[in-house]
Amino acid sequence: MLMCAATTDNSEKLHKVLADLGLGSRRQMETWITEGRVRVNQQIAKLGDRVSPTDVLRVNGRVLKRKTQALHEPLLLCYHKPVGEVSTRRDPEQRPTVFHALPRPKHGRWVAIGRLDLNTSGLLLFSTDGELANRLMHPTQEIEREYAVRVLGKVSAEMLQRLTQGVQLDDGLARFERIEEAGGEGANHWYHVVLREGRKREVRRLWEALGITVSRLIRIRFGPIELSPRLRLGQSMLLEAEQVIGLYEYVGLPVPAALSVKQRLLQRRQRAAEQRKAKMQKDPDQDDEL
Description:
Elements: E1 12-13, H1 14-20, H2 26-34, E2 38-40, E3 43-44, E4 50-51, E5 57-59, E6 62-63, H3 66-69, E7 76-81, E8 111-113, E9 121-127, H4 130-137, E10 145-152, H5 157-165, E11 167-169, E12 172-174, E13 178-181, E14 188-195, H6 202-209, E15 213-222, E16 225-226, E17 236-238, H7 241-250, H8 257-282, H9 286-289
Parallel strand pairs: 9-15
Antiparallel strand pairs: 1-4, 2-3, 2-5, 5-6, 7-9, 7-17, 8-9, 10-14, 10-15, 11-12, 13-14, 15-16
Helix pairs in contact: 1-2, 1-4
């Protein structure tokens, strides 16, 4: 039997390598492999194949530049998704997609970190690093997602208690980590809710299970990243290097080499700030004596 690549000590799963190059999520790369769009050393790849750094990878006939890709600084983008856009790269119904509104990265391509359904607006993150995107989406990370929800109908204290204790849905038990009231008048009331998973339409289904209609849903936070009030609907903004480095540390991934120089500079600045603070605490009247 022909093997696409020999298994070596420094080999990695093919779909992971492709995702790390920023071509898409791991799940999407598995689909590409199944569709026969990926070749390793001229052989059509299969799910489960492993590759080493010396293997030649081709996607849709194009050779991938694996060594130079690691030299590029990974990017992370915040996008304020409006209602009416789908979170897929292409839509068979020809509806507008979130990818059409994004700036084109100089290297790699954007990988969506999770999804928002058609009728949900708010914060959607994208990265050119597939490994970072996969780690942020993985259920074991239990990363918080916070939503602003406007509901129609009277909500009792017992309902709120049930929503935090657990409600049985079609795909299992689900619950909110936290619920906070956020104002409103009449039949419409706003709440801020927090989840640690990203099941399909989970926020809406939790409320609907108790007979409450969600009339508006906005994601306002994903992990440590909040939706900036300066970011208008349909607009996007790149995160600063300090925030990107923080996300790698947040999910326990090593900071890429392309960011390590900036990381060392930030660490020096932090140490200098701590030293100045310690000096001021030791001699608080120093400035007054000058």
